[in-house]
Amino acid sequence: SSELTQDPAVSVALGQTVRITCQGDSLRSYYASWYQQKPGQAPVLVIYGKNNRPSGIPDRFSGSSSGNTASLTITGAQAEDEADYYCNSRDSSGNHHVVFGGGTKLTVL
Amino acid sequence: EVQLVESGGGLVKPGGSLRLSCAASGFTFSSYSMNWVRQAPGKGLEWVSSISSSSSYIYYADSVKGRFTISRDNAKNSLYLQMNSLRAEDTAVYYCARILSGATTTFDYWGQGTLVTVSS
Prior knowledge:
The complex is a heterodimer of chains A (109) and B (120). With 109 residues, chain A is mainly beta. Chain A contains no helices and 10 strands. In chain A, the strands form 2 sheets. In chain A, strands 2, 4, 5, 8, 9 and 10 form a 6-stranded mixed sheet that branches. The mean pLDDT of chain A is 95. In chain B, 0% of the residues lie in helices and 51% in strands. In chain B, the strands form 2 sheets. In chain B, strands 2, 4, 5, 6, 9, 10 and 11 form a 7-stranded mixed sheet that branches. Chain B has a 4-stranded antiparallel sheet with strand order 1-3-8-7, with no helix packed on it. Chain B is globular. The N and C termini of chain B lie far apart (40 Å). The relative contact order of chain B is 0.31. The mean pLDDT of chain B is 97.
């Protein structure tokens, strides 16, 4: 099966820009989706497809992809953005499975 | 408003069984693929299973294949997960999640989850 790799932890100063990355072979063929999860809450979709935001997601969240790496960028991070972020995509082995990255804990300083 | 409400979690002994349910409302349930995703305590998200809108296509993670069965009842707007031969490593919060229309792996709505604890 395919794997998606994320940095376990990233920090950013309040108001600055941070990029969270997700690497995996499947990302050469499929876009990643990104989810934000705060403690004790269910995940929330923040980015999907080439660079699409669901209704209600601030435009400081954006996505991009190059080769085997997908990125979630937060431009002007806010205190409320402190959370765990997960990427996911389709398994590249053709078995229709879904894979998640291990998650990145974002700390806003 | 889209709502997904899971139920059926609880404490079960190793080797036991449990059936989770997910009640959907606020959208045309029969038009969407649905999934179960779990999260062990303090760990990341793990996809468990998916089922297409008409139940024609069903897939399982290797970790649960042969032990778990996903199903749905479109007349009752409900998704189910029958879990048999449970193991300690199945302990997790189980979320039901809707697949974004036209997508394959984008989960646009999630329930609040139900906790399954497998312990003697």
